[in-house]
Amino acid sequence: MTTKFRSRKSSGIIPRAALFAAAFALLAAAAAPAAGDSFDDRAAFKYSQAAIGRTVGDHGFRDRQGRAMAFAELRGKPLVVNLVYTSCSDTCPLIARSLVNGVELAQASVGRDAFRVVTIGFDARVDSPERMRIFARQQGIRLPNWDFLSTDAATADRLSEELGFIFFASAKGFDHLAQVTILDAEGKVYRQVYGAEFEPQQLVEPLKDLVFGRLSALASWEGIVGRVKLYCTVYDPSVGRYRFDYRVPIIIGVGALTLFAIGFFVVRAWLRYFRPATGRTARGGDRRSAA
After folding, report:
1. Backbone torsions φ then ψ of 244, nearest 5 degrees
2. Is 57 helix (H, G, I), strand (E, B) or coil?
3. Alpha-carbon span 74 to 187, nearest angstrom
4. I need a labelling partner for 197 at 20 to 30 A (CA). Which of 95, 99, 126, 282 fits?
5. pLDDT at 259
Protein backbone atom coordinates (compact mmCIF):
# COMPACT_ATOMS: atom_id res chain seq x y z
CA MET A 1 0.00 0.00 0.00
CA THR A 2 1.33 3.41 -0.90
CA THR A 3 0.77 6.24 1.52
CA LYS A 4 -0.70 9.38 -0.02
CA PHE A 5 2.06 11.70 1.13
CA ARG A 6 4.32 14.22 -0.53
CA SER A 7 7.13 15.95 1.29
CA ARG A 8 7.01 19.72 1.51
CA LYS A 9 9.23 22.34 3.03
CA SER A 10 8.22 23.18 6.60
CA SER A 11 6.68 26.58 7.24
CA GLY A 12 8.83 26.87 10.38
CA ILE A 13 5.83 27.14 12.71
CA ILE A 14 6.54 25.49 16.09
CA PRO A 15 3.79 23.09 17.25
CA ARG A 16 2.14 23.20 20.61
CA ALA A 17 2.95 19.92 22.33
CA ALA A 18 -0.59 19.21 23.40
CA LEU A 19 -2.07 19.77 19.95
CA PHE A 20 0.74 17.79 18.34
CA ALA A 21 0.12 14.74 20.52
CA ALA A 22 -3.67 14.88 20.19
CA ALA A 23 -3.60 15.20 16.42
CA PHE A 24 -1.12 12.53 15.48
CA ALA A 25 -1.18 9.91 18.22
CA LEU A 26 -4.63 8.85 17.02
CA LEU A 27 -3.56 8.49 13.41
CA ALA A 28 -0.27 6.79 14.26
CA ALA A 29 -2.07 4.19 16.36
CA ALA A 30 -4.61 3.54 13.62
CA ALA A 31 -1.97 3.18 10.93
CA ALA A 32 0.30 0.88 12.93
CA PRO A 33 -1.49 -2.42 12.11
CA ALA A 34 -1.04 -1.98 8.38
CA ALA A 35 1.86 -4.22 7.38
CA GLY A 36 4.80 -2.53 5.71
CA ASP A 37 3.54 0.99 6.41
CA SER A 38 4.93 3.57 8.80
CA PHE A 39 3.54 6.92 9.74
CA ASP A 40 5.97 9.70 10.51
CA ASP A 41 4.04 12.07 12.78
CA ARG A 42 6.65 14.84 12.61
CA ALA A 43 6.75 14.75 8.82
CA ALA A 44 2.94 14.78 8.77
CA PHE A 45 2.87 17.84 11.01
CA LYS A 46 5.34 19.66 8.74
CA TYR A 47 3.30 18.68 5.69
CA SER A 48 0.13 20.05 7.30
CA GLN A 49 1.73 23.26 8.54
CA ALA A 50 3.35 23.89 5.15
CA ALA A 51 -0.15 24.48 3.76
CA ILE A 52 -0.57 27.67 5.82
CA GLY A 53 -0.68 30.62 3.43
CA ARG A 54 -1.59 28.43 0.46
CA THR A 55 -4.63 29.42 -1.63
CA VAL A 56 -7.21 26.73 -2.30
CA GLY A 57 -8.21 26.36 -5.95
CA ASP A 58 -11.70 26.81 -7.38
CA HIS A 59 -12.81 23.18 -7.28
CA GLY A 60 -16.25 21.84 -8.14
CA PHE A 61 -18.59 20.10 -5.68
CA ARG A 62 -22.16 18.88 -5.22
CA ASP A 63 -24.24 19.88 -2.22
CA ARG A 64 -26.68 17.61 -0.33
CA GLN A 65 -29.35 18.24 -2.96
CA GLY A 66 -26.98 17.33 -5.77
CA ARG A 67 -26.64 20.92 -7.00
CA ALA A 68 -23.30 22.03 -8.42
CA MET A 69 -21.25 24.40 -6.26
CA ALA A 70 -17.90 26.04 -7.01
CA PHE A 71 -15.42 26.67 -4.24
CA ALA A 72 -15.33 30.34 -5.30
CA GLU A 73 -18.90 30.66 -4.00
CA LEU A 74 -17.58 30.05 -0.48
CA ARG A 75 -15.13 32.94 -0.54
CA GLY A 76 -15.76 36.37 0.91
CA LYS A 77 -15.94 35.12 4.51
CA PRO A 78 -13.70 32.94 6.68
CA LEU A 79 -14.33 29.27 5.97
CA VAL A 80 -13.94 26.22 8.21
CA VAL A 81 -13.14 23.06 6.20
CA ASN A 82 -13.66 19.55 7.56
CA LEU A 83 -12.77 16.49 5.43
CA VAL A 84 -14.46 13.17 6.30
CA TYR A 85 -15.47 9.84 4.84
CA THR A 86 -19.04 8.93 5.67
CA SER A 87 -18.44 5.24 6.43
CA CYS A 88 -16.05 6.22 9.24
CA SER A 89 -17.36 4.99 12.58
CA ASP A 90 -14.98 6.62 15.04
CA THR A 91 -12.69 9.56 14.21
CA CYS A 92 -14.91 11.47 11.76
CA PRO A 93 -17.97 11.52 14.08
CA LEU A 94 -15.74 12.62 16.98
CA ILE A 95 -14.34 15.50 14.93
CA ALA A 96 -17.85 16.44 13.79
CA ARG A 97 -19.11 16.62 17.37
CA SER A 98 -16.14 18.74 18.45
CA LEU A 99 -16.72 20.95 15.45
CA VAL A 100 -20.40 21.41 16.35
CA ASN A 101 -19.38 22.68 19.80
CA GLY A 102 -16.82 25.04 18.32
CA VAL A 103 -19.13 26.37 15.61
CA GLU A 104 -21.97 26.98 18.08
CA LEU A 105 -19.63 28.98 20.30
CA ALA A 106 -18.13 30.84 17.34
CA GLN A 107 -21.54 31.80 15.94
CA ALA A 108 -22.55 33.14 19.35
CA SER A 109 -19.27 35.07 19.63
CA VAL A 110 -18.56 36.53 16.19
CA GLY A 111 -21.98 36.22 14.52
CA ARG A 112 -23.78 33.36 12.81
CA ASP A 113 -23.32 34.94 9.37
CA ALA A 114 -19.70 36.00 9.89
CA PHE A 115 -18.19 32.73 8.58
CA ARG A 116 -19.15 29.48 6.85
CA VAL A 117 -18.44 25.79 7.42
CA VAL A 118 -18.08 22.96 4.90
CA THR A 119 -17.79 19.23 5.49
CA ILE A 120 -16.45 17.49 2.37
CA GLY A 121 -16.41 13.75 1.71
CA PHE A 122 -13.05 12.57 0.38
CA ASP A 123 -14.14 8.98 -0.38
CA ALA A 124 -15.48 9.79 -3.84
CA ARG A 125 -16.77 6.27 -4.50
CA VAL A 126 -19.08 6.34 -1.49
CA ASP A 127 -19.59 9.94 -0.32
CA SER A 128 -22.48 10.90 -2.57
CA PRO A 129 -24.80 13.85 -1.84
CA GLU A 130 -27.23 11.36 -0.28
CA ARG A 131 -24.54 9.93 1.99
CA MET A 132 -23.44 13.41 3.02
CA ARG A 133 -27.05 14.24 3.87
CA ILE A 134 -27.30 11.09 6.00
CA PHE A 135 -23.99 11.87 7.73
CA ALA A 136 -25.20 15.37 8.65
CA ARG A 137 -28.41 13.93 10.05
CA GLN A 138 -26.60 11.22 12.01
CA GLN A 139 -24.36 13.83 13.65
CA GLY A 140 -27.35 16.06 14.43
CA ILE A 141 -25.89 19.01 12.53
CA ARG A 142 -28.56 21.62 11.77
CA LEU A 143 -26.55 24.80 12.23
CA PRO A 144 -26.89 27.58 9.62
CA ASN A 145 -24.20 28.31 7.03
CA TRP A 146 -22.88 24.73 7.15
CA ASP A 147 -22.68 22.88 3.81
CA PHE A 148 -22.02 19.18 3.17
CA LEU A 149 -20.34 18.57 -0.17
CA SER A 150 -19.35 15.68 -2.44
CA THR A 151 -16.72 15.65 -5.15
CA ASP A 152 -14.75 13.34 -7.47
CA ALA A 153 -11.55 11.50 -6.58
CA ALA A 154 -9.19 13.81 -8.48
CA THR A 155 -10.65 16.89 -6.80
CA ALA A 156 -10.46 15.23 -3.38
CA ASP A 157 -6.76 14.51 -3.98
CA ARG A 158 -5.99 18.08 -5.10
CA LEU A 159 -7.99 19.64 -2.28
CA SER A 160 -6.37 17.48 0.40
CA GLU A 161 -2.92 18.42 -0.90
CA GLU A 162 -3.77 22.13 -0.84
CA LEU A 163 -5.08 21.82 2.72
CA GLY A 164 -2.15 19.74 3.96
CA PHE A 165 -4.56 16.90 4.78
CA ILE A 166 -3.28 13.31 4.64
CA PHE A 167 -5.45 10.26 4.02
CA PHE A 168 -4.76 6.78 2.70
CA ALA A 169 -6.60 3.48 2.34
CA SER A 170 -6.38 0.98 5.18
CA ALA A 171 -8.03 -2.24 6.33
CA LYS A 172 -10.78 -0.33 8.12
CA GLY A 173 -11.40 2.07 5.23
CA PHE A 174 -9.11 5.08 5.55
CA ASP A 175 -6.58 6.43 7.96
CA HIS A 176 -6.37 10.21 7.94
CA LEU A 177 -5.16 13.24 9.78
CA ALA A 178 -7.42 14.54 12.56
CA GLN A 179 -7.50 18.07 11.20
CA VAL A 180 -9.86 20.99 10.65
CA THR A 181 -8.62 23.81 8.43
CA ILE A 182 -9.57 27.50 8.68
CA LEU A 183 -9.34 29.62 5.53
CA ASP A 184 -9.46 33.40 5.34
CA ALA A 185 -11.94 35.30 3.17
CA GLU A 186 -9.61 35.01 0.14
CA GLY A 187 -9.38 31.23 0.41
CA LYS A 188 -5.91 31.05 1.98
CA VAL A 189 -5.11 28.53 4.72
CA TYR A 190 -4.91 30.53 7.95
CA ARG A 191 -4.85 27.95 10.75
CA GLN A 192 -4.91 24.20 11.34
CA VAL A 193 -6.83 22.76 14.30
CA TYR A 194 -5.73 19.28 15.34
CA GLY A 195 -7.28 16.44 17.30
CA ALA A 196 -10.44 14.37 17.13
CA GLU A 197 -11.66 16.13 20.26
CA PHE A 198 -10.49 19.74 20.52
CA GLU A 199 -11.49 22.66 22.72
CA PRO A 200 -13.99 25.11 21.12
CA GLN A 201 -11.64 28.04 21.79
CA GLN A 202 -9.14 26.52 19.34
CA LEU A 203 -11.67 27.23 16.60
CA VAL A 204 -13.07 30.51 17.93
CA GLU A 205 -9.80 32.38 18.47
CA PRO A 206 -8.56 32.23 14.84
CA LEU A 207 -12.08 33.11 13.65
CA LYS A 208 -12.02 36.15 15.94
CA ASP A 209 -8.74 37.16 14.30
CA LEU A 210 -10.25 36.91 10.83
CA VAL A 211 -13.69 38.37 11.54
CA PHE A 212 -12.62 41.23 13.82
CA GLY A 213 -9.35 41.81 12.00
CA ARG A 214 -6.20 41.39 14.08
CA LEU A 215 -4.19 42.54 11.07
CA SER A 216 -6.61 45.21 9.90
CA ALA A 217 -5.76 48.90 9.84
CA LEU A 218 -7.32 51.39 12.23
CA ALA A 219 -8.09 53.85 9.45
CA SER A 220 -11.85 53.26 9.62
CA TRP A 221 -14.49 53.18 12.31
CA GLU A 222 -15.22 49.53 11.45
CA GLY A 223 -11.54 48.71 11.96
CA ILE A 224 -11.50 50.38 15.36
CA VAL A 225 -14.70 48.63 16.49
CA GLY A 226 -13.37 45.30 15.24
CA ARG A 227 -10.10 45.76 17.11
CA VAL A 228 -11.97 46.57 20.32
CA LYS A 229 -14.13 43.45 19.94
CA LEU A 230 -11.07 41.36 19.17
CA TYR A 231 -9.26 42.22 22.39
CA CYS A 232 -12.27 42.71 24.67
CA THR A 233 -14.20 39.52 23.82
CA VAL A 234 -12.92 36.86 26.21
CA TYR A 235 -13.85 33.27 27.02
CA ASP A 236 -15.61 32.75 30.35
CA PRO A 237 -15.07 29.10 31.43
CA SER A 238 -17.69 29.39 34.17
CA VAL A 239 -20.47 29.64 31.57
CA GLY A 240 -18.65 28.15 28.55
CA ARG A 241 -19.25 31.26 26.45
CA TYR A 242 -17.46 34.32 25.14
CA ARG A 243 -18.47 37.68 26.59
CA PHE A 244 -17.46 41.31 26.20
CA ASP A 245 -15.12 42.20 29.07
CA TYR A 246 -15.80 45.85 29.94
CA ARG A 247 -12.80 45.93 32.25
CA VAL A 248 -10.43 45.96 29.29
CA PRO A 249 -11.67 49.23 27.70
CA ILE A 250 -12.01 50.78 31.18
CA ILE A 251 -8.39 49.96 32.01
CA ILE A 252 -7.29 51.26 28.61
CA GLY A 253 -9.35 54.43 29.12
CA VAL A 254 -7.96 55.05 32.60
CA GLY A 255 -4.44 54.50 31.30
CA ALA A 256 -5.00 56.95 28.44
CA LEU A 257 -6.43 59.58 30.81
CA THR A 258 -3.49 59.11 33.16
CA LEU A 259 -1.00 59.63 30.35
CA PHE A 260 -2.94 62.69 29.18
CA ALA A 261 -2.93 64.16 32.70
CA ILE A 262 0.80 63.57 33.09
CA GLY A 263 1.46 65.20 29.73
CA PHE A 264 -0.79 68.15 30.63
CA PHE A 265 1.05 68.85 33.89
CA VAL A 266 4.45 68.51 32.24
CA VAL A 267 3.53 71.03 29.56
CA ARG A 268 1.94 73.36 32.12
CA ALA A 269 5.08 73.24 34.28
CA TRP A 270 7.23 73.98 31.29
CA LEU A 271 5.11 77.01 30.34
CA ARG A 272 5.08 78.32 33.91
CA TYR A 273 8.74 77.98 34.84
CA PHE A 274 10.60 78.37 31.57
CA ARG A 275 8.75 80.80 29.33
CA PRO A 276 8.28 83.59 31.99
CA ALA A 277 11.98 83.43 32.87
CA THR A 278 12.88 83.89 29.22
CA GLY A 279 10.49 86.83 29.00
CA ARG A 280 11.95 88.54 32.11
CA THR A 281 15.49 88.18 30.74
CA ALA A 282 14.47 89.73 27.46
CA ARG A 283 12.77 92.72 29.17
CA GLY A 284 15.78 93.30 31.41
CA GLY A 285 18.02 93.39 28.37
CA ASP A 286 15.71 95.95 26.71
CA ARG A 287 15.91 98.29 29.73
CA ARG A 288 19.71 98.11 29.83
CA SER A 289 19.82 98.96 26.11
CA ALA A 290 17.60 101.99 26.63
CA ALA A 291 19.79 103.26 29.45
Report:
1. -80, 120
2. coil
3. 8
4. 126
5. 78
